[in-house]
Amino acid sequence: MIKLITYEEKKFMTKTSIRHKQWRRSFISLWIGCFITALGYSMTMPFISLYIDTLGHFSNWQLNFYSGIAFSITYLSQAIVSPFWGKLADLRGRKLMCLRASGVMACTIFLVGAAQNVATVIILRLLQGAFSGYINNATALMAGETPHQHSGQVMGNLMTANVTGTLLGPLFGGYLAGILGYRMPFFITGILMGVTFLLTAFMVKEHFTPIPVQKMKPIRQIFSQLANRNFILVMFLTTLLVQSSLMSISPIISLFVRQLMHGQGNISLVSGIVAAMPGFGTLLVASRVGHLMDQVGPQKILLFGLVISTLVFIPMYFVTTTLQLGILRFLLGLASAAMLPAVQTVLTVDVPQEAFGRIFSYNQSSQAIGGVAGPLLGSLVSSVFSYQAVFLFTAGLLIINLLMLILTNKKTA
């Protein structure tokens, strides 16, 4: 028996098909944008300390300190202004926030390459952080556009964009820095962020209904209506601690590689390869982890990732060659694929859509605070003790995070 399709049913099917194509196209465009953002970031940040070293005559302690400041000042300003941008995102949409971030970052990163002193670098990095947030807003946008049954997969695939860019960036950056100097990666990154701005403007579609200011619920009311608000708060703390752990070695990794190589050889290229090794591991399993999160839940994946990461950081204390460091950082990449995407998936599933912008902005602030605390503490620990001591410090942070999550799971069970 043939069933006739009514006009209303046909209209609904057509609308659904168009919406499906639109979020797929937006996902591809945002994936490319996230890739470029991560690529540009990782093209420049592993060499920030070496770049600063060319801007003056600094002692080892001064170089570590200025590197930590220049690295973390972006996250400090980001942590302060993220709630404001989150509220604006709920009022005006996430696409506008992506355009704001990519446009301003294109200018500030390009100008860093033209800086003549360390003070200029720090000021530009401060401005960059105040207007950054492309990847987080792209994640929030796709969280609102993606059907819930695909949330884990989409979050995992967005992670591959971040990781692929992070993977290739140090390689390109190391090659360019070795051939053309440390300024060139900043210039190229600024141009690529301009491309990201144009791609987002013309290819991304957001189905967003503006919320009148007078009808916007206060964030306290939203939290009070969440059935698992305590666990959401723990997710913010987890983002902070995980980011601190992952970023603690970042501002000094090129200096540590130089120490392991005894100042001989192509330090820029080797630093880029070592910095990129976690990307190889994460890229290998990120998509599979996304599928697995949809099946077993993000909490189990998060706990597993924290355990493995802790076990990987401890032997880093004993490395004596760049090969050993690279292998362990590759294993770290396998584990890190399970952490921040799992947190984002929890927020995607458990937070009402009208509050995505503000909730994700608080998570972004937590990540930014971790980006401040990790590099600063890493620089401090390396200056007082040694570069290797940073790894033990990082393992301690992950253990605290793991215990906190276990206790929270017991209370919410």
Automatic annotation (TrEMBL):
It is a multi-pass membrane protein. The chain crosses the membrane at residues 27-52, 64-85, 97-124, 158-177, 184-204, 231-257, 269-289, 301-320, 327-347, 385-407. Keywords: Cell membrane, Membrane, Transmembrane, Transmembrane helix, Transport. It is found in: Cell membrane. The keyword Transport applies. Residues 26-413 form the Major facilitator superfamily (MFS) profile domain. One of its GO terms (cellular component) is plasma membrane. GO terms for molecular function: transmembrane transporter activity. It holds the Pfam family MFS_1. This is Multidrug resistance efflux pump. It comes from Liquorilactobacillus ghanensis DSM 18630. The lineage of its organism: Bacteria, Bacillati, Bacillota, Bacilli, Lactobacillales.
